[in-house]
Structure formats: structure tokens, C-alpha cells
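[Automated response] Your request has been received and processed.

Submitted sequence:
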Amino acid sequence: MRSPDVRAVLLHALSACSPLALLCATACGTLATSPSWVGGGLAVAAPIRAAEEDAALERERALVASQPKQIGARHILVMHDGSKSKPEGVRRTREEGRARAQEALLKIRGGASFEQAVAEYSDEPGAAERGGDLGVFERGVMVKGFADAAFALKVGEVSEVVETPFGFHIIQRTE
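Generated structure:
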């Protein structure tokens, strides 16, 4: 069975429209396309964008495949007014939260123990008693930004400050 001519179908549909729309469609000789001087529009950009997205997904898959299935980590969580699940007592702006997390990171890099920094800086309930320990977990258990940073660390390494919807984290991989 031969498929109907698209132009003929569209002209038939346009015949119910105004005479001006019909005249434009027949005079232009083409429907729903850009003039040649536009530079291709979606016909050019969409395939490029799709290829870039596919390449990024492939890089992500390769990175995940090269990393362990599960790791152990501990963290410091500095929350702010916009943090998800924050305790009522947390009353700081996002900028103040970031500055506090940076201060904690500087202390750790200066020689302070991670456990001391957890006790002093972490807003996570119960973090001080656990030393910020999260135990062993798989990548999908944690929010993406946290998991990406944690799984990229070597055992014993401490991350930079990582922002998630829960606040600012400093992560140390333990296993």
C-alpha cells in the first residue's frame, strides 16, 4: 500500500482553514520548514544534541562500571534554611552553610580528625555519636551528587564540599 502524499494531506487539511493559509501553503511549496538561510534549525541541532546526550550517558555508564558496586563512607552534613529534612534549630542561609562546610574542610585538611569535625560541624541528627559513619551502601541508595562524589574517592580520601538538596557534605570514603 502506498502512503499518501504528505503535502496533499496537509493541503486537504488546510482547505478547511482560511484562504490565506491555503495560498501560503501552496505558494511556498513546503510546509513546516525553515527557509534555507536559517541554517538547519532542528534538522541539524537535534541530531547533534542527541549524539552529545548519548555520549554523556555512555561516559557515565563507563564510569559507573569502573567503580565498585558498594563503598563505605562517613560525612559531615551542614544544613541551611533551604535544606530538605533539616532540624528546626538550623537557621542559616545557604551562603552561611557553604562557608561553615568550607571551614570544616579546612580544619580537616589542617590535621583535625574527621570525627572531631563531625561533632563540631554536622547538623545531621545522631552524626556525632556515629562519627558521621554511613556504613556500606550502593550507589543508588544516595542522592546522585553525593554518590558521584563518594564513589569517585579513594579509600581514606576526603572530598571537596558537595552540595545536595540536603545541604553541604564533606565525604570521607572508608572502604
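Summary generated for your ticket: The chain has a mean pLDDT of 83. The chain has seven helices and four strands.
If you did not submit this request, please reply to this message.
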